[in-house]
Fold these 2 entries.
Entry 1:
Amino acid sequence: MWGRTLQFLPNSKDREGLLPWVIGVMLFLCALSVASAVAIGTGVEQWSRDLASNVTVQVIVADAGERSRQTDAALTLLRATPGVKQATLLASADVMALVSPWLGDMPIDAGLPLPNLIDVTLDGSTQINMQALDERLQATAPAARLDDHQAWLTQILELATVLQLVLTAVVAMVTLSTVAIVIFGCRAGLATHAEPIAIMHLMGAEDSVICRAFDLRYLAHGVKGGIFGIGFAVITLWTVSSMATELGEGLVSSLAPESSMSLWLLSLPLFAAILTMSTARLTVRSALRDMM
Amino acid sequence: MITFENVGMRYGMGTEILQDVSFSLEKGSFHFLTGPSGAGKTTLLKLLYLAHRPSRGLVNFFGKDLATLDRSELPRMRRRIGVVFQDFRLFDHLTAFENVALPLRIKGAKKIQVADHVEELLSWVGLEDRMHAKPATLSGGEKQRVAIARAVINKPDLLVADEPTGNVDPEMSRRLMHLFVELNKIGTTTVVATHDAELVNAINAPVLSLDKGKLSLKRASSQIDERL
């Protein structure tokens, strides 16, 4: 009773008791969406970094002698190129292993004219103009094809961007839904407590005094819901991440709430509490203005 | 101090509950408000404790015209008015002490200032032993005394009581009326709405009589209609 806020509102757990749970569920969905968006971003960034440090050169020509000659020429050129750390010709057995999922197990001397593959590792410190390198390769070994994975990576990046936009839309919708639920809850609360509010007004209470009582109540709802939602989200993310790590799945395992993610995860209950309280304050203030 | 001139009141598009009501309350005066059920007593009381604005007519409170009074000025104005409701309207989750302290807390009084004042007032209404009881454990008379204490804690300029003796026995009724008379003696303008003709007869005060929305002033208590 003796605080800055006058607790004139009676407890109404039967009517408002579900609100923290609803806020918690919304925050849980929000946290999963944000974690997924961050994980996609992190995963794609990791893949981009890995792929950017490697390129592949294929030498595609049916004649074995010519293939061997152009491969040697390409290797020489690549090894002399600044920024190339290593250029290694893949063994025939490794090439067979790469195509075996589609062609099945075959002996190496089956007569199939497979291209020679050169795995090129870049040192990362020197920027290489891939188009110029490709042109020089064409001049030296016309059957050589440089693949810097950009086409595939571009598609992956586009997909990741779309997924992140979808997840951002989910977060926005969940946030708006939470605001709408709090507004409905608040209006119900105003109707439930119409008499205490009227008595307070008649005793000379200003709107700010009445608002503060609602502020405190909805702040508590937001904090309770926030802690429940974020707690459940952290457990879920940690469980999924642990299971995925055991399977060696890099993208899903990045869902784990690591230190960089922990800060925003911990800030979500605060965000929920502030959002709930602000929404309640605006709703109550607007409703009170319509009263005498 | 308070003036009503040709005041009319209707709710929405309904019929007029009060018609051309005119009267004035001088500082320190004591009035009864009587009338049969449906005469408009409650509506007139609501206008008196600033729960509504009239549909028409002029109402002047403490020198200010209600029609031009900004909403932000209402709280300060309402703090000058104490209200005793027929059904008490106490906060059930608060103790008698906390209920009585509310108007002071609304005004921003400090804890130490409030405590002495509330205890003194609760003692004055005979509830010194029931200060920390919640309304659910109080009798009708005790609740009414808490409600009166809450209404007068701010030393209001105007005290409005709606059937303050409606829920208590005759002995308690006399004691409560004695409280109102005492408050009036120290300068509080008092309006008591009642159906109790015996009560009205017991105190020689002017009577505002409402019938079908029309108000008349009867100076002598003996003139009160026997049907009341």
Entry 2:
Amino acid sequence: MKNKKKKFAVLKNGRGWLAASGAVFTAMGMSANSACAHGFVGDYFFPPTITTDDPFATDELKLPSVSYFKSPAAGGGPATGTTDVGFEFDKEIFPKFALGISGDYLFQKPDGQQQLTGWDDFVMSAKYQLWQNDPHQAIFSVGALWRIGGSGSSQVGADSASVFTPTIYGGKAFGDLPDSLKYVKPIAVTGTLGVDLPTSAEPNNLQWGIALEYSLPYLQEQVQDIGLPRPFRDMIPLVEFSMSSPLNRGGGQTTGTINPGVLYETKYFQIGAEALIPVNSASGHNVGAIAQLEIFIDDIWPKTFGFPLIGRDN
Amino acid sequence: MKMIKTIPYRLMLAAILFFAIQSQAWAHAFLDHAEPKVGGTVTNSPSVIKIWFTQELEPAFSNIEVRDARGNEVDKRDAHLGDKDKTLLIVSMAQLPDGTYTVNWHVTSVDTHRTQGHFEFTVKAAQK
């Protein structure tokens, strides 16, 4: 879902619009094992990441997600600063399979022009957790995104054509390393890889991204109590790489952002913030920012969320 | 422009405050602190292992086991909650020689969320 959460703007036809970003991942398929909800693989808690999607098919609510990014001038149009206020809701339908929907309301301000506002195209998602290995803290999922063409406002450049993006997701934490490398154990990496299949003549884009994170909660709780006080022991510093690579039709070069930041975990929610650093001049010249609130709806309303609508988790 | 730019951030702040003041105590139970400390070294064999969690636990579905480096269980298999503190899980220990031990725990919080984890500690008698 977060592959469609656009992190930078590219001008088209004199109006600003946001291009999707993505992630690259090397899948690690392993034997299936028992599933845990809420982002757990064995002992390791994979936090919901902000600008790349995690591999879990669980109940999630992100509300709101607020970002600001200034896209470079392109196609004869001016540079455009865009504030994006978004949401995402995912629901586990049957064990390990979830459906989701996300939306972004855009406030676009092209240089020297009036502000434009409106909804971007809505995106629906489906995801299935295919493999999981608890002792090795690894997971692999498959899914697809459907950007619903025509569901947003053309004023902000929402496309009238739909885009389908089959995607693979994966995650690996390193708690299975030997004790001689104990301070490496809290590291985890997740990633996604998808290919845009537009229903128009737009290019096919490879959407790829990686999140590299260091879990201070895992360090404190399962590796070494180093005496970190709260709130620091509840923080997860990370860096995400969110990229889009056109494959054909003169789509241009790879664009994207590198997003260093931190996540803060509480009992009921996670709040995260990242800088959005353009990887090249085609992506932009200014550093943007994003902040997101992830609500742990299965903890707040455990009788309503945290289990599939049909069937039961192991 | 200024009003529009601040509305999203006000929305986020309002959402954070709303969920922060939820009175319900339900949530996943995570390890808060332990005795011996996670990754710690003690000079005397501990008589009990204590783990404090962030939520109250269901005793019937919560357990600790301690194993030595060879995988042998060395606790007394009497895991129980604290008398007055339902976030505290305790297991009694046999006398332990010097060595590194693994504590494996799995708990269910009162709202039925399950979590699990493990950590190591070392017994190393003080050199005379």
